[in-house]
Amino acid sequence: MRPDRIDRTRFTGGAMQGLTALACLIIIVIVAIIIGNIVLHGTEKLTWEFLSQPPRDHFTKGGIFPAIFGTAALVILMTIAVIPLGVATAIYMHEYAPKRSRLVHVVRLAIQNLAGVPAIVFGLFGVGFFIEFVGRGLDKGLYGGRLVYGQPAILWSALTMALLTLPTVVVATEEALRAIPASYREVAYSLGATRWQMISRVVIPQAAGGILTGGILAVSRGSGEVAPVMFTGAAYALPQLPTQLHHQFMELGYHVYVMSTQAFDVEATKPALYSTVLVLLLLTFLLNFTAILIRARIRKKLRDGR
Amino acid sequence: MDASVERALQTESDPRLFIGISTRDLNVQYASTDVLTNICLDARRGEILSIIGPAGAGKTTFLRSLNRMLDLDPDWQISGTVLLNGHSIYARDVQVAALRRKIGMVFSVPVTLPVSIYRNLTFGLNLKFDGRGQRDERVEKALRDAYLWEEVKDRLDEPAGNLSGGQQQRLCLARTLTLEPSVLLLDEPCSGLDPISTRRIEEALQQLKKDLTIVLVTNNVKQAARASDRTAFFLFGKLIEVQKTEDLFTTPREKQTADYISGRFG
After folding, report:
1. Residue B266, domain member (yes or no)
2. CATH number of the domain encompassing residue B74
3. Which of B116, B119, B127 sits opposite A191 (nearest CB)?
4. Sign of torsion, CA A212 A217 A222 A224?
5. What is the pLDDT of residues B185-236, one digit of tens each?
6. Interchain contact B56–A (C-beta under 8 A)
7. Please, which residues have CB within 8 angstroms of residue B66's CB and are 6 or more apart in sequence?
8. ipTM attached to this prediction
9. Which of A155, A241, B102, B247 could form a disulfide with A245 if both were Cys (CB 3.0 to 4.6 A apart)?
10. In degrees, to the nearest 5, what angle opens at C-alpha B222 toward C-alphas B218 and B223?
11. B46: distance to nearest CA of chain A, Å?
12. Which residues, 6 or more positions from A295, have their beta carbon under 8 angstroms from its beta carbon?
């Protein structure tokens, strides 16, 4: 081999190592800049008052408590809606549907498509389906046409968000079901379990960790999205908290959007804006962390066999 | 009467007293391919029937047709008769879950559920407790019968995964025994075990066979010779012959059997 060829391969190897390392570095730098910037500017206004008061004086004074409360309530409602629906779908597809089922094929296709639909389209669907169709229908049927559910509300936002995060939960649950060894199912059957006994006593406890991972991903996604809630229930500014499912609510992501584009004096709201973004990040982390803790406890329970 | 049926019946000592499991013209196909053809074989209470044969002979399929585990995959097609104490197990009114409690099964790889030893043992009981005796007593008796009681009596709350492979397989045996089955199907139960664990299981089976019908599928010809009363030889989905174990190993009727047990193929 000629000496210059050796040099060239050595150069290529070194260059490639450098380029790939650079790609990693770029990611770290970007994350550091985003978080650093937010923390740097956001901590200044982050007081107890800010966390516990409603906004005043065109968002320049007061706090964001209603938005924190609204976001948490939204995410909890969404989780209550999406987990049963997603888990039931996955269990049907993986445990009940016959082999090579047409229906499962169609459902899977639908879920893949659902995952690709832009968030704003979910928002519009929420208006058209939940508010106009379901809500108005409820009002006509139960309230004699009085406007109760036929308008933007936290319930409709949560359900819209649940649809958005449904593919995540279905896919994660299916993965978890697939990971359960066939031998566990056989043992359950050989000891005289019916199909439902096998599912409820072996499959669901074993899949619980994976199902919760799907829930965590859904929570992360749901607490950050703005588009699905902006038409379906989030309010521009609302000092009182939502106490009924048909109330409107404030949401952190939407509040950021409102403050940065719709405020009377955008410059004057900047400190509050930074702090709100910081709170949004912290709340997302907190919700995630809670879900991870719950999952860890369930896993430990399973491992110890109690 | 078909020749294979006659051959099977010749081995029958007293048909009037027959208690156990028997098949008549059992045919099994997987996705339209023949896996078992015209199997007529009896396993009676008080004996261990072992089934030997090379890989692909249909031994496991035969075993799984006896407790309807094949039903789990709709690609299996079963025709013919399987009788448990004279009653067809494929009859319309048979409840499959209840049937499988009567016909216990131990798999080739020990499969303990990832819960405690105790919870493994009570899994079957908790599905539908028949109320005979106390739960803890049933668990203790099953563990004693599986020769495992002394080793685990103080650690029932430990995860079952902490046990050694041989202990896990005896736990699987005990787990089946908690249901007080009348038939025990064992699918190469010692394939992954050391000689000492294997001997413990074989000893347990010798004690258990008094009240049970035991069908033992094994790839280990020596185990069949050691541990069973009668031996059936399967080849390419057919029952080649069945005899008293000592007769089959000393004077096999068929050349194929002689070739297999002397290790010439398979």
Report:
1. no
2. 3.40.50.300
3. B127
4. positive
5. 999 988 888 888 889 889 999 999 888 999 999 988 889 988 899 999 999 9
6. no
7. B21, B23, B82, B89, B103, B183, B185, B215
8. 0.88
9. A155
10. 45
11. 22
12. A208, A209, A212, A213, A216
Domains of chain A: 48-304 (1.10.3720.10)
pLDDT 10s digits, A261-290: 887 787 888 888 899 999 999 988 887 888
Take residue B143 and report the two structure tokens written for it.
């563990």
Query: Cα distance from A8 to chain B (closest Cα, Å)?
Result: 54
Distances (CA, A) of A99 to A89, A96, A238: 16, 9, 52
Task: Give the DSSP letter string of B24-92.
Answer: EEEEEEETTEEEEEEEEEEEETT-EEEEE--TTSSHHHHHHHHTTGGGGSTTEEEEEEEEETTEETTST
Which domain covers residue B70, as residue numbers? Answer: 3-261
Candidates B113, B155, B169, partner chain A, best to mutate (most A CBs within 10 A): B113
Does residue B29 lie within any of the structural domains? yes
CB–CB contact A187 B159 (8 Å) = no
Q: H/E element holding B1?
A: none
Q: How many CB atoms lie within 10 A of CB A146?
A: 10
- Alpha-helix runs per DSSP H in chain A: 3-42, 48-52, 65-91, 102-116, 119-125, 136-142, 154-178, 182-190, 195-198, 204-224, 227-230, 252-261, 266-304
Domain count, chain B: 1
